[in-house]
Amino acid sequence: MKGIVIGAGMGGMSAAAALKKQGVDCEVFEAVKENKPVGAAISVWSNGVKCMNYLEMGEIMDKLGGPMHYMAYMEGSTGQVMTQFSLQPLVDAVGERPCPVSRADLQASMIDWWGRESVHFGKVIEKVEQDKVGITAFFTDGTTEQADFLIAADGTHSVIRPYVLGYQPERRYAGYVNWNGLVDIDTDIAPDNQWTTFVGEGKRVSLMPIAGGQFYYFFDVPLAKGLAEDRSTAKADLARYFAGWCEPVQKLIAALDDSKINRIEVHDIEPFPTLVKGRVALLGDAGHSTTPDIGQGGCAAFEDAVVLSTVLQHYDDIDYALQEYQRLRAERVKDLVLKARKRCDVTHGKHMTTTEQWYNELKQESGEHIMEGLKVTIAGGPLG
């Protein structure tokens, strides 16, 4: 049996690892000539780390994961602590730590683990056809590739998704802009072992420690879509949007490198129940494009890969196996997308009375309620 994976991002490489684990021959095709991930870093929560362990890439997480042992929310204007607590009870409860990691290093490490020379770069998928025998992938360079089945891990702008769904779903603007990047750790800004988030006015500034002595930072501001701003004006824009915020936020903005700030208008896609058409299956952002508000985008892709691996292990009939994959994943990923959307609205002031209520709740939070929510999300994954 042979499989094709379209996309060499985190979803595609985890899918390739899933097939390898089951002894399935696999070819990976990536559109870009050089893999350049969007965004500086990613928070991989415990369910995602468990999946990476299952896929035999746990050493990558051990190497790249930052020491995120605590969590804190701070008032944006004053810098005063709203809540601060250890994440060790969460780790003890779920059996694995969370790992904030450099997105570029993670993707590069996954490709290297697979074998960079075995990934076909510069191969842009154009269309897919299938018959009773298998599938044929057509690329824009005029070449084709045949296999028994195909996994489409070609991202939120997936070319293959409309073929599977029968229509082109619209991306939904989530209502806020995210700026992100990496900066050297400065403990005058935030502790080097803590996920620190400053909140106020429906905005947030967040820092997570990753390996190599760096913070992954991001700024969120509720804004209209399509403003005449880009990464070239990012530092001045952030200084304006966060004028009057506390000294650590001002010091962070001052430390940023203009040329290395990413600016993203955040979108998601309404969940859909169809992930499979015959022998073509959607995986990762192609199958469930979510906002990053609960840190489950990458984790969901890793979960997809684990489920793909298990159904191939248990069922010889590829058509039935992929239907089982859809059955096992559709409700889970719908839940994650909608949970992230709900959290997005609260965090970013869609209804400011609700957001202000959340701020007040944070001041009474011991950490137990937040960690309970994290535990429920983590336990919903395929590895518990």
From TrEMBL:
SUPFAM superfamilies, sorted: FAD/NAD(P)-binding domain
Pathway: Purine metabolism; urate degradation
Cofactor names: FAD
Reaction catalysed by this enzyme: urate + NADH + O2 + H(+) = 5-hydroxyisourate + NAD(+) + H2O
EC class: oxidoreductase
Family: Belongs to the FAD-dependent urate hydroxylase family.
Protein name: FAD-dependent urate hydroxylase
